[in-house]
Specification:
Order of helices and strands of chain C: EEHEHEHEHHEHEHEHEEEHEEHEEHEHEH
Chains: A alpha/beta (183), B alpha/beta (253), C alpha/beta (355), D alpha+beta (78)
Strand order of the largest sheet of chain C: 4-3-5-6-8-7-15
Largest interface: C-E, 67 and 67 residues
Strand content of chain B: 15-25%
Bound molecules: thiamine diphosphate, iron/sulfur cluster, magnesium ion
Distance between the termini of chain B: 51 Å
Number of domains of chain B: 1
Strand order of the largest sheet of chain B: 3-2-4-5-9-8-10
Radius of gyration of chain C: 20 Å
Number of strands of chain C: 17
Oligomer: heterooctamer
Strand content of chain C: 15-25%
Number of helices of chain C: 13
CATH topology of the largest domain in chain C: Rossmann fold
CATH architecture of the largest domain in chain C: 3-Layer(aba) Sandwich
Largest sheet of chain C: 7 strands, mixed
Structural class of chain C: alpha/beta
Number of helices of chain B: 10
Structural class of chain B: alpha/beta
Number of domains of chain C: 2
Shape of chain C: globular
Number of strands of chain B: 10
Chain lengths: 183, 253, 355, 78, 355, 253, 183, 78
């Protein structure tokens, strides 16, 4: 079957969900796919949760907005409540188990992978890279592409002044992938 | 003697979390307004005219009747409210993008007509809600998303001092500038707000208070540093104090 | 309604003011622009006499927003302007429509686009009936053709504004505004000055606080509001008004509104004298548009010629009304020209020849 | 004999309160609240130092702080 | 056109900016409003780099008037905003149309009416295509559905603005503006930076003075100007653009534009997979409207279902286009809801069942 | 020696009758502008931004390129013109209804941005063109068609002094008020206008001159009495003089 | 035939053509007729010539605007140039011969009555009443109504502070009527 | 040796010129021009009093006045 994937990535405002959405889509483009990325914000800019939708496809992409996605990256509890019910049967749910009680995962209906993102990131020295841990796990679990195009895209997606963090981010991606590989 | 609760939420401020960023001064300004509505006994007569900016949801936080004005037009909407209900306590709450940019004509003319309303002006030197664009109040050199290399006098002009302009209008009764960056200034801010509200209660005309406020998010500073910036950068350019007080003279002069 | 038998000789602008006063309008927000200046001028002296408030706003933008404020308080309030000024009011009108705020807006349409001229024109039909502002909303649009109608419809406009909690537009033109004729004022009864008691702002004393707004950010909330509006607009459809003149045996029905409708009546009379089977259909409400009545005429096999003082706007509504059974031709009177019966007789005769 | 109560679900961890306390007893905790903010706290052992000055409450943008005071007994009472 | 093969991954807002820069836009006048903020933000850094001028206006009213000033000088200039801000620009837009001033205006349509929300919607179709401002005028209205189209049509918009000496509107929505996808930038050739040499203001040196105005008070002058405009609008009709997808053997043609057109394409694909003979007609120019192409489809006996992210606006144009041979049904997606293919598949399936 | 023509129409002023009422000062202001365009040699570079008011037809009287701005928006239009053609001499000519009422935001912001343009502001205390309605500049007690019993401070507020407001803005370079009621004042007016124009020529920013002017028609005075009114009623409230002159300091301060 | 009359009244701004148009229409109303009056101004308010159109009819009045009227009151030369060609054949043209050379009157096609309005008014002591002289002549010449309803209407049409001039205006109306009676 | 020329078709009879002439030689005439205005004039016999000061021209809103001066012969000329 043609390569196709869509995902909703959701969490708190500061958790960097937009960044990994961007990174995923950009890497997909570099890997030869058609891609769309669309963010959804709360009240103009402030507060609440943030989420974005990414579509990766070999074919022309019609709708960039997906109500029932085939995969999720869920970084906090309110996002789980909101999006898990919408996940297609048998879909993939990457759950940040550092902040979410895995008892809430709908493991019968969908495939849930617990990734203790904050803890792993903390261990690697920077909680803020929890998002990269989640993305690493996601790439591994979906197999939509290798991890390398994602790692290669970091320099294009991160703004210049964060380039010094690329090695650390790479580590986080790898660490996440490892968790998923073992799941 | 038994323990007393000496500081609590004023009745007029609804008990719910706000959508503001950590360290945002809108919360402080809201509380001061709420305290005064209670203390002056006008909450049940109050009609808030909310403006468009991060504080648009003030109407979800204050327990008073409210109407949402289009961006910049709150003083005109308030003029209409007051024309319709002269006996009510009518006030606007506006950001600097709202009041000093798009709403310049409306606030100046409402002030000059001597509308018997109060205006709470929250100056945080940026368009907060839309992501930190340059405002008329943005300081020289300050970087924003629409003056990425810093505001430049040559190209974008000087930061506008609204209180001074309002104070210069024949129709205005009270105009003052305060700051929310420390406890002393917050106390002073409340005094000024009380005077501005008093203007209206005594039917003596237009009361205006500018509150220098932090927008840590768009300043890209943590809240503590943001408060420091108010002291070191804002106050020197936007001096605090009363710029007009014709309250005791019976109104506008 | 107690008719005062005395006729008064007034401009359409004054008829609007007298109507508003009879309807107990309590706030007026104005700004000078020809050809409606008599409205704010007269209001400036009349409002205070009746205990109301006149404010000369700093601009039409401000005037429309003052109107929003007064309307939010459930007070009968009005503004008036002419074309360029009405364009400036569009944002606030959209806010009023979006927040269910009753209000009356008068547009004495002048020539456009741009500064245009100060003569009559009907170039603002689209703007009035389809919302010149953003978003899906509709105003009730009333188009008087005579001084008396200006008076009557102004009274009605306040009732409608409160009935539907919606802004109402009175769409006249420089002819209506500037023409003097005799009208018979009357005083409506049973006006409910407290019509807003259940929703208007008055201070949250002994009740829940109230909020007049158009921002809907919670999921599904804006969609809900749009559904409510849609429902309201459907309800409004029952309130249509129109005039039919000599349509019964007419082969050709001229469709025209406002001053052009009135002038078309002269033309129809003249053409009838010449033996032509011509009639007139004059929508009085432009929104809701009297589609059913037109469709009924179309089903009788009549033909249609729409004539407007513009390049063709209402003709869309005529065509949409009758599209399943018939079509309408169109003849423009160009804005900038003063319309006369010959402008209608000419195209009708051409049509009759061409058929 | 004063104390403050920080309503943790309201605290956004801005730390402004920590800068104004004359006795410097407020500090950031290790706890995240539901919204993901690391909340401020007064360690139990420090609370007795609170003067009830209300400074922290005055500067808190989120009305997260309540202040209680127990007036000193006047000499001779009881 | 020299294609640079390199794809870039950008938001639609950025695609618009890149297109404008490629088209050698030299002045941009902005004001913040979601969901178009990336346009002024990017312009503020890019304009100076290319020797152009970025001005953050004090309001949308001012921005539109700055645009009028720059356009009067024959300089490629642009402004952008979203729904409430576009309402505020209506007076100036009417002036530009009335004074034959070329300019490009971008509207990233958000939910309305009033403050509405910041999500996508198509409530401004009427306002864009029928003139939300006063008087008879038309904008060329281009409705991109993808980032690439946003880029391409922005380039075209400047050419069209100068070709017709008319303001052009690019009508997107929050989806178009906020969505990132890959686009392939290209550099147009043969741009005539001096296209205004015969009429633009540049100081009356060695030539007659020039005047850009819309006031026509001399007898017959405004009528003449309106005739000129009418002629111009007729000329524009030749410039229509649309996309047909799977219409050939379709029984039912879905009509949808912009982001909804794009989402409808997904829906049509899904429905085709289920064996339904459904096609898509997507107008790319909303004015001029591709009426002839629609009529041709209607004459083939196809049925129509118009779907918009509003309560029904473009459907008027569809119906008017095909009124002599067919009609169109309509299904709304309510502003406030994020549109998905199911919003189109549902009504289509209903229609197919009902037929 | 032979006779010399010592006073004649300046070249920039087209030889045709104007539509103004007898004694209307717009004609005087037009002439001063025309003379300066000639004397400063900028006529061929000039782009006039005309405003909406009795003087809208200025573009029929001055021999320069021109664009017609919507009511009140001339400073915004001029900003656009200048952005497009930095090398041109751009000026607006606006009435008090236009500039001080509907156009308040545009003129303040153009001034504050330090736009390198000149603004000629003709203050005749009424909306002339539309029939003499109250303007923001209408004097207390003055009767107009929309304040038929005279402007009242309580209800309509105080007459706005634009030059003072403009002078207070950081971005403005030159701001002065003159009067056209007598020969001496007319000469002074020309001097101020020259300075304002000079600002732009030297690329030093925003130049603003207010001209107190008569509207005999709407004042319902004959032209001679109208000129007298300027002296006895207007000048006392609107003092003449230079309120800001940062020209020699290299621009706005 | 039913009573019907339409007229264009034209002159300089200051000649009071609007006033007599108003007076004519008002008197017509008082006399039981349907009436319309519509003014036409130049640039918003200022300068140029002014004219108005009055229709008096026993029937409902459709159009208040008349291109080719059955009668004219012409107070100055530019107005004659503009409106005389539009006057219906056999129509009535009241011409202010004080300011207009009667050689320009199209006496063959239409009925022209020369009324030296300014001179008569001057003689009566006030040039500004030239308009009333013209109206007096017009009423007499058309016979649309008696002069009395016109005279009676003065108090309603003139603003209060000009009421002291009613006798003088009456005299002017009468003087005009006399001229027409003799024509 | 100066004089003015009043372009009568431009004059609107506002009489402002009459108020500023230092020699008071300008006055209203009895003539109406085409537009119906009673124009200003300097009676022929008064013209020689004109100093050529240009005041009248400076205040005339309608550019109706031209001013001519014949410079005094300097002593010794000719
Ligand atoms: C007519 C219009 N233009 C623009 C906007 C977008 N907008 C929303 S809030 C805002 C700026 C708010 O800035 P400010 O008034 O300073 O308030 P803050 O958020 O900083 O408190 C803008 C431009 C709008 N809603 N309406
Ligand atoms: C948007 C808009 N509002 C109102 C008008 C009507 N209008 C034309 S001129 C004018 C006032 C002019 O007054 P001012 O600026 O003082 O100039 P003056 O005629 O006194 O010289 C107005 C309100 C208009 N043309 N456009
Ligand atoms: S963006 Fe700024 S103003 Fe808005 S809530 Fe955050 S800190 Fe406050
Ligand atoms: S009340 Fe005063 S002493 Fe007590 S914690 Fe707060 S700031 Fe510190
Ligand atoms: S000031 Fe308030 S919100 Fe901020 S850290 Fe202290 S308690 Fe928390
Ligand atoms: S109305 Fe006033 S401003 Fe206008 S032309 Fe006449 S005198 Fe001048
Ligand atoms: S030039 Fe001087 S002296 Fe001569 S007429 Fe004029 S004002 Fe009088
Ligand atoms: S000032 Fe000019 S217009 Fe006025 S009377 Fe003298 S010459 Fe005539
Ligand atoms: Mg702000
Ligand atoms: Mg004026």
């Amino acid at each position: 079957m043609a390569r196709y994937l869509d995902a909703i990535i959701a969490g708190f405002g500061g958790q960097g969900v937009m960044l990994i959405g961007n990174l995923l889509a950009y890497a997909g483009m570099k890997d030869g796919l058609n891609v769309t990325y669309i963010p959804v914000y709360g009240p103009e800019m402030r507060g609440g949760t943030a989420n974005c939708t990414v579509v990766l496809s070999e074919e022309e992409i019609g709708s960039p907005i997906i109500h029932s996605p085939v995969s999720l990256i869920i970084m906090n509890r309110p996002s789980l409540d909101k999006f898990q019910p919408r996940l297609k049967d048998g879909g993939l749910n990457i759950i940040n188990s550092s902040l979410i009680d895995m008892d809430l995962a709908d493991a019968n209906r969908v495939k849930c992978i617990a990734v203790p993102c904050n803890e792993i990131a903390d261990k690697l020295g920077n909680t803020r890279m929890a998002n990269m841990v989640a993305l690493g796990a996601y790439i591994q679990a979906t197999g939509i592409m290798e991890l390398q195009p994602v790692i290669d895209s970091l320099k294009d997606v991160l703004s210049e002044r964060y380039h010094k963090l690329i090695p650390a981010n790479t580590e986080a991606l790898n660490a996440g992938a490892e968790v998923a590989a073992k799941a | 003697m038994s323990e007393q609760l000496v500081f609590d939420r004023p009745q007029s401020v609804i008990d719910r979390p706000t959508h503001y960023c950590p360290g945002c001064h809108h919360g402080v300004a809201h509380r001061l307004v709420g305290e005064l509505l209670d203390e002056l006994g006008v909450a049940e007569d109050a009609i808030l005219v909310a403006s468009i900016g991060c504080s648009v949801f003030l109407y979800n936080y204050l327990n008073v009747d409210a109407v949402e004005a289009p961006h910049g037009r709150a003083p005109a909407v308030a003029t209409g409210v007051k024309a319709a209900r002269k006996d009510k306590f009518v006030f606007t709450y506006q950001g600097d993008g709202d009041l000093a940019s798009i709403g310049m004509a409306e606030v100046l003319h409402a002030a000059n007509r001597g509308e018997n309303i109060a205006v709470v002006f929250v100056n945080n030197t940026v368009y907060g809600m839309t992501g930190g664009q340059m405002a008329p109040t943005t300081l020289i050199g300050q970087r924003t998303t629409t003056c990425p290399s810093g505001r430049c006098l040559e190209h974008e002009g000087a930061p506008i001092r609204m209180t001074e302009i309002i104070a210069g209008l024949g129709g205005a009764t009270f105009a003052a500038r305060a700051s929310l960056n420390n406890v002393k200034n917050i106390r002073q801010a409340k005094k000024y707000l009380r005077k501005a509200f008093q203007c209206q209660i005594e039917k003596k005309g237009f009361g205006f208070v500018e509150l220098l406020s932090a927008c840590p998010t768009n300043w890209k500073l943590n809240p503590v540093d943001a408060n420091e910036r108010i002291k070191t950068e804002m106050i020197p350019y936007f001096p605090l104090g009363v710029f007009k007080d014709a309250l005791d003279e019976g109104g506008a002069c | 309604m107690s008719k005062q038998p005395e006729r008064i000789f007034v401009k359409g602008n004054e008829a609007v003011v007298r109507g508003a006063l009879a309807a107990r309008c309590k706030c007026f927000f104005g700004y000078p622009i020809t050809p409606q200046n008599e409205i704010p001028e007269l209001m400036s002296s009349e409002m205070p006499k009746s205990g109301g408030e006149f404010v000369q706003a700093e601009s039409e933008v401000a005037a429309a927003n003052m109107l929003l404020g007064a309307g939010a308080c459930g007070i009968r309030a009005m503004t008036s302007s002419s074309s360029p000024g009405i364009s400036l009011k569009q944002e606030a009108i959209s806010y009023m429509a979006g927040s269910n705020t009753p209000a009356v807006i008068v547009n004495m349409n002048r020539g456009g686009p741009g500064l245009g001229d100060i003569g009559p024109a009907q170039g603002d039909y689209y703007q009035s009936t389809r919302g010149g502002g953003h978003g899906d909303y509709r105003l009730l649009v009333l188009a008087p053709a005579t001084g008396q109608e200006a008076y009557d419809l102004t009274i009605k406009s306040f009732d409608l504004a409160y009935k539907y909690r919606n802004p109402v537009m009175i769409l006249g033109d420089a002819i209506l505004g500037q023409m003097k004729e005799a009208i018979t004022p009357w005083q409506p009864e049973g006006i409910d000055d407290e019509a807003g008691r259940d929703w208007a702002l008055s201070g949250a004393k002994d009740r829940e606080k109230r909020l007049i707004k158009s921002l809907y950010l919670e999921e599904g909330a804006l969609a809900g509001q749009n559904k409510n509006l849609q429902k309201k607009y459907e309800d409004m459809q029952s309130y249509v008004e129109y005039e039919e003149f000599e349509t019964e045996d007419a082969e050709l029905v001229v469709c025209a509104y406002g001053s052009i409708g009135r002038i078309a009546k002269s033309a129809v009379r003249n053409l009838r004298k010449q033996g032509h089977k011509v009639g007139l259909f004059r929508p009085i409400t432009l929104y809701p548009f009297p589609s059913d009545a037109l469709l009924a005429l179309a089903k009788q096999g009549k033909k249609f010629l729409t004539i407007e003082h513009n390049l063709g706007q209402m003709v869309d509504d005529v065509r949409l009304a009758i599209r399943t059974v018939a079509d309408s031709d169109f003849a423009p009177i160009y804005p900038g020209n003063l319309p006369i019966p010959e402008d209608i007789e000419g195209p009708v005769l051409e049509w009759l020849e061409g058929k | 004999m004063s104390r403050i109560v920080i309503q943790e679900d309201r605290c956004k961890g801005c730390l402004l309160c920590t800068t104004v306390c004359p006795t410097q007893i407020i500090a950031q905790s290790d706890r995240f609240n539901q919204s993901g903010y690391k909340v401020a706290e007064v360690p139990a052992e420090d609370m007795e130092k609170c003067t009830g000055c209300t400074s922290c409450a005055l500067i808190c943008p989120d009305l997260a702080i309540k202040v209680y005071r127990t007036p000193k007994k006047k000499k001779g009472d009881e």
